[in-house]
Design goal:
The structure is a single chain. By secondary structure, this protein is mainly α. Helices cover about 60% and strands about 0% of the residues. It has helices at about 1-15, 20-45. Helix 1 packs antiparallel against helix 2 (about 20-45). The longest helix has 26 residues, at about 20-45. It is elongated and about 65 Å long.
Length: about 70
């Protein structure tokens, strides 16, 4: 996916602003970045949540003044 984003970024940066090609390149870059963001969000969501501590002094008390 990184190759797609870098190719889209180089294409968007080389296109003339205000032209149809420039607008299309920017749109392709935005779609590629949105796809990469969605993929990263799915990876983060799939990580297991650690279990909370239930006993002892470590991880069971919160110092709200720190």
């Amino acid at each position: 996916m990184n190759a797609v984003v870098s190719a889209a970024a180089s294409s968007a940066s080389s296109a003339q602003a205000g032209t149809v090609q420039g607008a299309a390149s920017t749109l392709v870059l935005k779609k590629a970045m949105d796809a990469q963001a969605a993929s990263a969000a799915q990876l983060i969501a799939s990580l297991p949540q650690p279990a909370l501590a239930t006993s002892g002094s470590l991880g069971t008390q919160v110092n709200t003044f720190a």
